[in-house]
Specification:
It is built from 3 helices and no strands. By secondary structure, it is mostly helical. The two termini are 20 Å apart. Keywords: Membrane, Protein transport, Translocation, Transmembrane, Transmembrane helix, Transport. It comes from Christiangramia sediminicola. It is found in: Membrane. InterPro entries: TatA/B/E.
Length: 93
């Protein structure tokens, strides 16, 4: 199982939420979250547009971009091999 490391704990997140409520008020929080969501969606759409334009340009120029899939597959194989090797090793606390 792969998890992303979080650098803040649950108590810190609760404290940040408390500060946000104190500064902006409970009625403004949904508007702020909605605005952040729209902003994140706009960034995602823009990055997808840029990726598609790069892909189209590479296709027009005859550049083969399939090697990235091959590299990703090899990296996944190496990760699986490492997981198999280190899976049997137990760490003592």
């Amino acid at each position: 199982m792969h998890t992303l490391p979080l650098f803040i704990s649950g108590a810190e997140i609760a404290f940040i939420m408390f500060i946000l409520v104190m500064v902006f008020g409970a009625d403004k929080i949904p508007d702020i979250a909605r605005g952040l969501g729209k902003g994140m969606k706009a960034v995602k759409n823009a990055s997808n547009d840029i990726k598609s334009e790069i892909q189209k340009s590479a296709d027009k120029q005859g550049i083969n971009t399939d090697f990235t899939k091959d590299v990703r597959g090899e990296i996944d194989k190496v990760k699986e091999d490492i997981d198999e090797i280190t899976g049997s090793i137990s760490r003592k606390p």
